[in-house]
Amino acid sequence: MQKHYIAKLDLTLAPLGFGVMRLPINVDGTFPEDVHKLLATAYEQGINYFDTAYPYLGGHSEELIRDALVKNYPRDSFYIADKLPVWECHSHEDMERAFKIQLERLGVEYIDFYLLHGMNRVRWQDMQKVGALDFLEAKRREGRIRKVGFSIHDNKQTLEKMLDAYDWEFALLQINYYDWIAQHAKESYDLLVERDIPCMVMEPIGGGRLAKLPEQAENLLNAENPEASISSWAMRFVASLPNVVVTLSGMSNTEQLNDNLRQFQPFKPLSKHELSVLDKVVEIIKTHSTIPCSGCLYCIDECPSNIDISQIFQRFNDYKQFFNSPRFDVDYFNSTFFPEARRADKCIECRRCNEFCPQKIDIPKELTAIHNEAIGLFIDVDINVLKDDLSNETLLVCFGAGAVGQNTVAVLHQCGIKADYFCDNGQNLWGSEVNGITVISPSQLEELSRTHSVYVLITSSYHKEIKDQLNAMGIQLK
Predict the structure, then answer these.
(1) How many other C-beta atoms are found inside a 10 Å radius of the C-beta of residue 432?
(2) 31, 95 in Cβ contact below 8 A?
(3) Cα–Cα distance for residue pair 463/472, rounded to 1 Å
(4) How far, in Å, CA of 116 to CA of 82, rounded?
(5) In this predicted model, what pLDDT tens digit does every residue of 67-92 receive, in sequence order?
(6) Do residues 401 and 439 touch, judged by C-beta distance below 8 A?
(7) 150-162 residue pLDDT tens
(8) What letters, b where the CB count within 10 A reaches 16 and e where it falls short, cover 224-252?
């Protein structure tokens, strides 16, 4: 792959970067053998920018970078991008601890690109309070960080405040052809252009949303170029933007890697006609019914519970509009995206938000509906069917005692259903009680299933892995 010298960074980078967030992982935290091969192939094909973060892949992604790349290739032949877990950093000591852990996991002495992770208005305020900029600057002087930047999921106003506060060397934005106008990504991109700050891009395919579209939209793209994959249009849109120096893709298999490589060997920017075709695709997507939130954030400014209303609505709209959208429930119950204290069920229905909503959305009503649907997606079973299946002799076990499980049992309780046990792979929980329900180990569940009729609900984002685990134990899900 042809690389490009970026004068502002004084580095030579491949235009395609590898995001390790979406790689497959085993339930025990290890990786299938082909994952290491996938990263090695990416490196050998010319990719030299690898993006990871503290929480990715259950906290194991940094170790994967170490084992697949750091141990096998010259350290100066590729670049590692990593991120400070800002939600865990409430003091200078917290930042020092997290950074030390990251260096150890990666097996390196320095990190090439270091970012404040997932910034928004609230997180930026928190980082200012704990002196994050001083921390970053100190690490740069020590040679532990080479380039300082941030990733952001917020509007132009928050971005502008951050850019005014520090001499950032790069920024990571969420850009794709749907978000370009609909979610005001263009405004943020233009701001980086004005400040002459190199732009890295995450979610060019919208986390998978733009890989499968409504039939009418796919027919339109296939008629233009039958040989091109649907996702390749999204990759080319982002990489065609002049100030984008690296387009990150969360590739999880060889097929996706090869498809992306084809777009950059060599790269051909979108023509004006192709851009007009994508405009038509966006209009088709918009025809699907959603919550008419414009992302103005007036509601959040007035919310005493500080609920992340705009982001919740945006993710929910993505789930409704796109045929291949990531499961909304997985994102919703992921504390990286939505801290528990800012989720929809924390709404106290004061209704102040409604007074300031230009779209006149009944926000508390929509939040309640969204939260209940997210729970329903996770338990993936009709409540009435569940009631019929649960006899007096059948024990209900919820596998997963985290936020998802706790929210699930609360909803079940409202419907007159009580869980008898939690089961969890976390050894520190075994024998304890969560919300008044005893947590048992998988081996205890296996033993219980031999002597009782057991109904198991998977209440965890690791649904596939736990399903495989249960099958191996001889416990069949209904």
Answers:
(1) 13
(2) no
(3) 14
(4) 9
(5) 999 999 999 999 999 999 998 999 99
(6) yes
(7) 999 888 999 999 9
(8) eeeebbbbbbbbbbbbbbeebbbbbbbbb
